[in-house]
Amino acid sequence: MPDSKPHPIILGAVLAGLLIIPLVVRDEYYLHLFIVSAIFVVVALGLNLIVGYVGQLSLAHAAFFALGAYVSALLFFNLKWSMWIGMPAAAIVTAAVAFALGWVILRVRGHRFVIITVAFAEIMRLVATNWVDLTRGFMGLPGLQIPALYVPGIGAVDVSSKERFYYVVLAAALLSFYICYRLVRSSVGRAFVLVRENEVLAESLGISAFRTCMIAFVVGAALAGTAGALYGHYIGFVSPDLFNFSYITIMLIMVILGGKGTLIGPALGAVVFTFLPELLREASYYRMVIFASILVIATLFMPRGIIFPLVEHLVPRRWRKGHDRAA
Amino acid sequence: MTALLEIKGVMVHFGGLTALKDVNLAVSAGEVLSVIGPNGAGKTTLFNVITGRVRPSLGSVVFRGQAIQREAAFRIARMGIVRTFQKTEVFGALSLVEGVLAGALARGDPDPETRAREALESVGLQEKAHLRADQLPYGDQRLLEIAQALAAMPQVLLLDEPASGMNHQESAHIVRLIGQLRTKGFAIVLVEHNMHVVMTISDRVMVLNYGETIAEGRPAEVRADPRVIEAYLGVQKTDARAG
Ligand SMILES: Nc1ncnc2c1ncn2[C@@H]1O[C@H](COP(=O)(O)OP(=O)(O)OP(=O)(O)O)[C@@H](O)[C@H]1O
Ligand SMILES: [Mg+2]
Fold first, then answer.
1. Do A250 and A61 meet the contact criterion of CB atoms below 8 Å apart?
2. Which numbered atom of ligand 1 lies nearest the CA of B46?
3. Chain B residue closest in CA terms to A187
4. Which CATH number do you get for residue A313?
5. ipTM of the complex
6. pTM, rounded to two decimals
7. Running along chain A, 327 residues long, what does each successive block of 10 average in pLDDT?
């Protein structure tokens, strides 16, 4: 139900668990995976607004992620602006680009919408590859750094170690979760689901499908852009590889197998599907084939995804009131 | 009596087909105007024009003195003209409350849930408020559609064959419901093939045939009109439930 809140005990336990991860996980590699997971939680929550809540299959999301990475990287590379400015700038630029793109494509639906989002992603990739004066083409933009964080009363704090950067990305993931939580419970967010379920009817009752989809699209893109900036600075390098089609595939897997149209599902999906491919490295040649196949099968036969239904059964019913059941 | 909604000289073409030809209509608060006519006469198209889903090539739709034929569908709904659909349209996967609150939400109502429950109560579905819309039997879904429309707090209600596919008891309920809505001051335009419903509830009846108005007047007058009998009522016996 839209107005329910997560059970405080569960919420507290989850938060505590998330906070102690760097104290418990001493292995740098696993910590790295947790950091990447948290960044992809932001991405998946954004994509979920579009694919899960308003129900439009956008393949432009990875391009927004890459665009955010480039915006922040270019500001750093050319102007020496730190990530703390680059990140909000990335969010604003991706939101603005999404607004302009949405102005055109949110007037069409179905396969036409999907195809134009693919075309947009491809144009972005070509720009990143060929506008060499700006982007350095395939050479990419190296040497990105994680700047110190200025904390009032304490001063500059170095957050560039994995242990500390984890808390930065965790904060980003939690904040994104909170933003999405508030959004989907607001009147706009309730309109998301109405438009998804029956657009013609929603419009005939006074809801603007265009405006509703636009809000999901722009907020979703801004989250992707923010995550892209974090990712670029964390990896230290931004290149056209970010536009690789495997990114959008994995993002869709996180959202759809996680459980689109819920918040917990895609967030957990981001974690699971960051770890799983890494743990299955042996099968590296086949893993994208396997995942893509799972995606097809799940899309056809498991509309609620895999992870959300599992979680739903693990958590006792009386503790479950916090779970969004909009799907 | 000044009309709440007026349609003046509306013309609609679909390619070579003239779906509406110089159609005029006026309906006031607390009045039920029925639009009848054979399949393909243009009744649903008329609703589509009023609600902004089809643009007329000529003519105007005037609501409370304002021309609205160029407005977006969702704006027209917010202004106070809401319709139901000939083919049932509900938010299948949502609970009745979650779906019915749509109209209240769109108008910025501070408490859409309460509006939704009131609307469900006025059609008698309050006990099923928590069920999924697609779990309801067909007859209840038709009532749900009316609740959806009511929660949007319209002044004009356009009902497209609300009694189609209903048994005697259910259509009697619909007749009572429409009567109550009229008493509450809604202006109602009713498209309906069930002549018993039309003749019982209507203040005025307008007959469309091939997009043209061939008769208009009180139910008894229209029923006796030879052109109407020839074009529509005469075939009712054999073609009673077509469409
Ligand atoms: N969007 C459209 N495009 C092309 N033709 C259309 C469209 N909508 C309706 N028509 C045609 O316009 C004519 C009027 O259709 P309309 O649906 O308004 O009839 P109706 O009076 O509601 O009929 P019924 O009693 O069967 O519901 C029909 O010939 C129909 O095929
Ligand atoms: Mg019709």
1. no
2. 18
3. B105
4. 1.10.3470
5. 0.92
6. 0.89
7. 62 88 87 95 96 92 95 88 91 97 88 90 89 82 79 80 90 96 93 95 96 96 97 91 85 88 90 84 71 75 76 58 42
